[in-house]
Design goal:
This protein has 356 residues and is α/β, with parallel strands linked by helices. The chain has helices spanning 11-23, 51-57, 111-124, 148-161, 175-181, 195-202, 218-230, 256-265, 274-278, 281-293, 320-332, 347-355; strands spanning 2-5, 27-30, 38-42, 62-66, 86-88, 91-93, 100-104, 128-130, 165-168, 184-187, 208-211, 236-240, 270-272, 298-302. It has an eight-stranded parallel β-barrel with strand order 7-8-9-10-11-12-13-14, surrounded by seven helices. Strands 2-3-1-4 form a four-stranded antiparallel beta sheet, with helices on one face. It binds phosphoenolpyruvate and manganese (II) ion (MN).
Length: 356
Amino acid sequence: MIVVLHPSADAAAAREIGSIARKAGLRSVPDDPAKPRRLALVGAAPDPGGALAAELEQRPDVAAVIRDEGPAPLASRHFRPEPAPVMVGPTSIGGGGPPVLAAGPCAVESRDQLLAVAHAAARAGASLLRGGAFKPRTSPYAFQGLGPEALRLLAEARRETGLPIVTEVLAPEQVELVAETADMLQIGARNMQNFALLAAAGAAGRPVMVKRGMHATLDEWLLAAEYLLASGAPGVVLCERGLRHFDSRTRNILDLAGALAVRELSHLPVIIDPSHATGRRDLVTPLALAGLAAGLDGVIVEVHPEPDAALSDGPQSLDLDALAAMADGIRGIGARLAAPASAVVTPGIQGWISSR
Ligand code: PEP
Ligand code: MN
């Protein structure tokens, strides 16, 4: 249930309601710990007979109690009625702000490869650098990523470009290591329902991007976000990356309608990944533009200096020129990309880099 506090309610009222909730076996989560306006009372079997909701409704410091908050209260608009931004280093995603472009290689393969892409991404106006250090590969014989060495290279690319890093974590025992370098952790499509991983990633103190499973419903996706939020994630970004389908001409099918629908249900930023959605570099830019024209909060794309030589996902990777052309296309539809949208590392960003 969600408790909407009366505008005059103070922090003491929120604490009192929290202790009533605890006695009922629930946890009270404030929307804003400094000045709570709404409290989500979460836990197993919240208020079976409705007695607690009825009791809270009688309080003068409570304006309303929402009983039909859906399966994922913390991720829902009932808890935060407006889109809320997620901060990743100096980059703000969502919250009604300008869209973000995240770009980078599927997998970090070498220093030269990563730095070439990172500089091209910064020049194109990207505000996040992606790059897999640990790769979830269908075949055990495929390139699995450079692991810790890739994390060192990502940190170097951040120092050079000022771009915050998003990189995937595959297992709970990797979370601590990956979170040392990542500014945002990535949960891949295949792991969207790896609940132990979600709980560990949510507790790592970093924002998390959770990709939609390739056969996940919107509610299942939101529940993955709920796991992260319930475990304390300071922010969650939803990423639609295409669903399994019956045609072999495209790798997946981008559920743009689903991405838009989930934004109606949730305050979380929603971005799309047209690289994995299509598997085809010729379709990446048109789909990216479609997502941004529809008002989504950003796109994440794979880029490689020599896509045909890539160790993973080459067919869907843009080369450096195609990335620049995509950025021009984005400006062409009138979308202004989120800062830092320049290849120049400003003093503010320099300060942030040194703090990492
Ligand atoms: C990736 O981003 O490289 C990746 C493996 O994505 P997904 O989990 O969407 O397949
Ligand atoms: Mn990939």
